[in-house]
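Handout, section B. The chain below has 401 residues.
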Amino acid sequence: MEHAATLAEPGTATPSGARVPFFTQAATFAALWPEIEANVAAVVERGKYSHGHAVGEFEAALGRVVDAAHVVGVNSGTDALVLLLRAAGLEAGDEVVVPAFSFVASASSVVLAGGRPVFADIDPVTYALDPAAAAAAVTARTRMLMPVHLFCQLADLGAVTRLAERHALTVVEDSAEAIGMRWDGTHAGLHGAGGVLSFFPTKTLGALGDAGAVITNDDRIAETAAALRHHGRFGHTLDHFPGIGNETVLPGLNSKMDDVQAAVLLAKLGRLDADIARRAALAGAYTERLRGCPGVRRLPTVVEREAETNPVFYVYAVEVEHRDSLVAYLAAHHVGTETYYPVPLHRQPCFADLGHRPGEFPHAEAACARTVALPLYPDLTEAQVDRVCELIRAFYGGSRS
């Protein structure tokens, strides 16, 4: 098997018509299966399949990787956002500034936590919350700012943090996609009250199903989030810690992480750095092959910040002309893609009561109309990258330069 951080040897052809899925981790799991099997067998032997020893072991291991004082394992990245918002003090009617271009959970979590999302436009290059637009969205009712780190790089945390300080706001990071990303050495999610990680299967660190975590350096937030994931039962801890009580203080959720998912994630955590390097190599191959291609309006651009940052390619998203037609063309040639995100948040039916109109957030709407994600995952081969790029160039009528 080739080293995870390198591309397949040039010359390995992908036959015309061969399928290139948008995502698969079949080869990854084949390589890791002995370790996963051993971890799962240990879970079965202990007989506790949720909120147990494997979850605690994974929380501790992940905390060391991201340098977080606390990791609270839950059953999805969405629940992690809801619990983090509540633990950070969001109250009924409080406003949270959220970018208009993101997965719906960034905003729906605010509603589920009792708050009101207030949308702001994005930076057209990074797709992250534009600090100037966020500043314009702040009102007397604003309590929090939620930067979302999308695709391959961090939002402008320096500007967001300064804005929060000027208005005495709390920063809560939707860092669901951002494992491995750092700002001056501090991991994404640890620049304010806390952040979240998603372990949805396609993520850079993906499970076999849904799972997520709250990460924070705040003791109180960690304690509250840990209670909220288990029906608000303070003192009801993981089974590898001594229990100290069973008192329900806050209405919480049943959002405990499954030990089977923790067992899988423990096995995959050891190859995280290699997987990140592999994704970077694949992203570089795409960029080299698509540079100058007619119809491709923008390739991923990593923006220099005031701090030292590092890209981590969870998604390779490009902006293209005739996006939907290209997607259909690639699908007809057995290449999978994903559209992030076809409808901006302010135009989602579930937020119709906020009263937004088309055109209010032009950068978000442009990204929704032009952005498409290409296959990017450690199991992808260079020959498959070649095939995808050849098809894109054929669609736009441009030969490789």
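Note. The chain has two domains: 26-30+271-396, 31-269. Compare this with the example in section A.
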